[in-house]
Amino acid sequence: MAASVKGKKCLVIGGGGFLGRHLCEVLLERGWIVQVFDIRKTFEDSRIQFFVGDLCKKEDLKPALEGVYCVFHCASPAPLSNNKALFYKVNYEGTLNIIETCKEVGIKRLILTSSASVVYEGHGIKNGKEDELPYAKKPLDYYTETKILQEKAVLSANSEDFLTVAIRPHGIFGPRDLSMVATAVDMARKGKTKYIIGDGKNVVDFTYVGNVVHGHILAAENLNPGSPICGKAYHITNAEPIFFWTFMTRLLTGLGYPAPSIHLPYTFLYIVALIMQFVAWALSPFTTITPTLTPMKVALAGTDHFYSSERAKNDMGYKPVFTLDQGLKLTIESSPHLRNENTEDKEKKS
Description:
Elements: E1 9-13, H1 18-29, E2 33-38, E3 49-52, H2 58-65, E4 70-73, H3 84-105, E5 109-113, E6 125-128, H4 142-156, E7 163-169, E8 172-173, H5 180-189, E9 195-197, E10 203-204, E11 207-208, H6 209-222, E12 233-236, E13 242-243, H7 244-254, E14 262-264, H8 266-282, H9 295-302, E15 305-307, H10 310-316, H11 324-333, H12 341-349
Parallel strand pairs: 1-2, 1-4, 2-3, 4-5, 5-7, 6-15, 7-12, 8-11, 9-14
Antiparallel strand pairs: 10-13
Helix pairs in contact: 1-6, 2-3, 3-4, 8-9
């Protein structure tokens, strides 16, 4: 049963990021007292107490944990940064330090932002269920490898005195998104989004950030002794699977960019990506190369990967609060800085 948490104090680790900031805003609306811990302060809000520090250092983390009811752990490096050392430090070592420090100061609840990619190996997943999908034995990138280590650490730490749960969102997007939306626009501006990988019929989940936030808050409200969610992972999605390229077309055309239209063979591109990855690895002792095409990018754009949120619905009453249409509309309306300036010029002239 969900507990009343109004007036409770929480700490959002990584609260300065895309998801973290959205989470803070809704927590405040719901009556929580919100504190943020991050490597830097990225926004101003007089209602929030900010702590700046390194999550791998107990002396930095402890002051932020004083009197906290629960911790939301959203901190993670950008997946596209390709910084293996940072992935391991933040996602794994930092998480171990959070768990240990929480226990030392008596925090009893930890909600982790994980990822649906922890079960993905590049093969099609259709309506994937948590209890039917093992962790990926051959994850397609090192970021995912460290997210697997992270989730295992958090869920295995669950006990009668320390309750944990992992939220696995998939394909997050929304206002202020610096990852998927910003990357798509950057590629569009370089003329790289005219291509469709494969036949364009692969079905995937895209999840509006407001629904991901809703899943986190429901988890916090239900994370109590005896709850079925303790020690488990939950897929959180919009529950509206869509063709990958239909979604990208709607996003790009909504921002004034041309729709992808030229098909490229999936298998060929995947092999090219593998070769580029091998070359980057072979040259790594001498120089740093970051391939623009990776096996993970090709697989995500060309295979089915959508997941069931039924377990979250049954165990904590989750259902999306924003439709995909609403999410796209809000994202496009909030992103005038990402619009195609050439299109705007044409519209003004006409």
